[in-house]
Amino acid sequence: MQIKTNEIHIGMDFNINPMTAVFAVIENDNVFIFDEIELFSSDTNEMCQHVRQKYPEQRITVYPDPAVRQRRTSATGGVTDLTILKGGQWRFAVRVKGSHASIRDRVNAVNSKLCSVAGIRSLFVSRKCKKLIRSLERQIYKEGTGLPDKTSGYDHMNDALGYLIEYLYPVAQKSGTVEIGGY
């Protein structure tokens, strides 16, 4: 996909193995996922470096796991992932909720963009995003629940996508839970 916008939206899931990111452009409430990154044995600074190498000129907005405030990367001095994303050399805009949406709400938000109850599709994934496609196709759920099985290894890309979609297009509205970071 040719990037026709100066703004890229990134859903990001923080793990050491793997750390994942999905890249989107949004036009008229249609979300086009056009790229992905999966890094093993990594940290937030390395992810940010990969993002900037791929997209040096674009304005970047990151939608991370809400635990971004508490989790720490291998950075010295106990710097949080949130401060790494927003500050220093990266200066990404960060959009993160004050608390986690339920996993079910995140899954439902993604599913409703893939195909709403009215049959409208507004989430599109490039064939280039093989890991995300594989994750969407192969994610299984714990028996007797609507919750993803996190032991399969297919949840990280789906989580990255879910943080982006659920922030922008939540299925459950809660007031006062959104924190917005600036550019």
What key phrases describe this protein's structure?
single chain, alpha/beta, Nucleotidyltransferase, domain 5, 7 strands, 183 residues, seven-stranded mixed β-sheet, 23% strand
Provide structural commentary.
It is a single chain. The chain is an alpha/beta fold. The chain contains 5 helices and 7 strands. A 7-stranded mixed beta sheet has the order 6-3-2-1-4-5-7. A hairpin with a 5-residue loop joins strand 1 (7-13) and strand 2. Helix 3 (103-114) packs across helix 5 (155-168) and helix 4 packs across helix 5 (155-168). The two termini are 25 Å apart. The model is unreliable at 175-180 (pLDDT under 50).
Strand order of the largest sheet: 6-3-2-1-4-5-7
What is the succession of H and E elements?
Answer: EEEHEHEHEHHE
Which range best describes the helical content: under 10%, 10-25%, 25-40%, 40-55%, 55-70% or over 70%?
Answer: 25-40%
Radius of gyration in whole Å, from Cα?
16 Å
The CATH class, by name, is Alpha Beta
| CATH third-tier fold name | Nucleotidyltransferase, domain 5
Strand content: 15-25%
> Which structural class fits the helix and strand makeup?
alpha/beta
Number of strand segments: 7
**pLDDT averaged over residues:** 87
Q: What is the general shape?
A: globular
For the biggest sheet, the summary is: 7 strands, mixed
**What CATH architecture label applies?**
2-Layer Sandwich
Distance between the termini: 25 Å
Q: Please state the oligomeric state of the protein chains shown.
A: single chain
Q: How many structural domains?
A: 1
Instruction: Give the low-confidence spans.
Output: 175-180
